[in-house]
Specification:
Elements lengths: L1 H38 L20 H14 L4 H14 L6 H22 L4 H19 L10 H29 L7 E5 L5 H10 L5 E5 L3 H11 L12 E4 L10 E7 L8 H13 L1 E10 L2 H16 L11 E5 L8 H5 L7 E5 L11 E12 H7 L6 E6 L4 E3 L2 E7 L5 E6 L1 H4 L1 H9 L5 E5 L11
Parallel strand pairs: 1-2, 1-4, 2-3, 4-5
Antiparallel strand pairs: 5-8, 6-8, 7-8, 9-11, 9-13, 10-11, 11-12
Amino acid sequence: MSALLCRLVGAGWRRSAAPPLRDTLRCKSAAAQVQSEFLEGSPHRKHPGVTNLKMLRLPEALQTGALTLIHKSELKDLSERSRKLKNYLWSRKRAVEAPVLREKAMVLERKWMEKELQSDGGDGSTIEAKVRRKVLSELRKETYHWMPLRYDAELAVVYMVARLAGGYAAVMRALNEIKKRDLLFAPRSLLDFGSGLGTALWASNTHWGDSLKEYVCVDASGAMNALAEQLLSGGSERAPLIKHAYFRQFLPVSPKVQSDLVVAAFSLSELPTQKEREDTVLTLWRKTSSYLVLVENGTKEGHQILMEARNTLLKKKEKVVHDSRKPVVFAPCTHELPCPKLLNQPTVPCNFLQSYWPLPLPGNGEREQEKFSYLIVGREEEQREKLGEGELVQWGRLTSPVHRRPRHVQCQICCSTGELKQLAVTAHHHGRDMYRCARSSDWGDRLPILSKEDDTLTEEP
């Protein structure tokens, strides 16, 4: 009897324990199915979140044209001059705003006035003049002296040696985000503000040359426009290699004329005030039909300029609205909340790397890397569907180098919740597919996260 009871109790226990086990297996099966779905049939090393490009080389015609024009210029010390210009452009900061300068001057004036009155009871006007000289001297020492760059024909060639290949690499990588994620995007028109040597023209033509029918390049420098046109002709007198490219020194006046793709690469940092940058960003947005792409140096200054632009687009209302579709951040941000890097690591910019082959000139290495920051904003109607709102799979952005370790991958990821997390991704906690995707991903790629509420994504201690 006792043996029978034992068997019955054992059977009952097994029956009561079975449903939770089945539920667990069912949950694992559902998770595996979701993971298989986000791969979209791609291998892990080419999962949909991979947007990095391999080593980039300038288009052959562009490189040939650049080398021809460089040899024609016969400029002396070109290698050294280009190195100095490259370093100067990288270290360039924003001009100090007038209100900030006035406030700083008032603080210094009060400090020096107190010292002078305590040490010398002389004439008030004499003390005031003395303090004013000291304040001006102090401001000159401590304040960054911003100056506009004016490119003549000679400096334009120096800039070409310094920045042609690196600028092309950064813009190619930024545009590849759209190319990879929006397979239906086939732009017919490009507007490039601050076009310089036309790198955005060449990069967009590489990606969408079959569909683009018009390229409008706007740069205030006539010498830079002339050099960009010569590059289009391969440095010779032959017909342009890319047709329907137009160069202007001013933006088109009509606010109703839009371009499918609008690019401003390394241009906002050349504007002297925050007000001018805000006005320019809003003007470029009015002229955008589908995507606005902004690229800057991957420095603290460059990143903050882009975050200013992001805030302008998301928060400022235009007086006259010509296109009611609102702006939606497409990349690199996975959310529209405040940038966690600015909140948690204010001295560390959100930037990315792209490897490229420089121009084959004396002094240049075999391989270089462009560090840049970028922002892509799209129009609301199309973007909500592309960004996958409401889907179980959300995407995070890898914002630093990925460290592959035995049985886990260390990642810094900007999540769709607006958090910046240090994660140790393992097959056990996050699933085989996510683990293999993490091992195949790199700095700048997106990484799939199973649901916003996935409590397995805990912060690494």
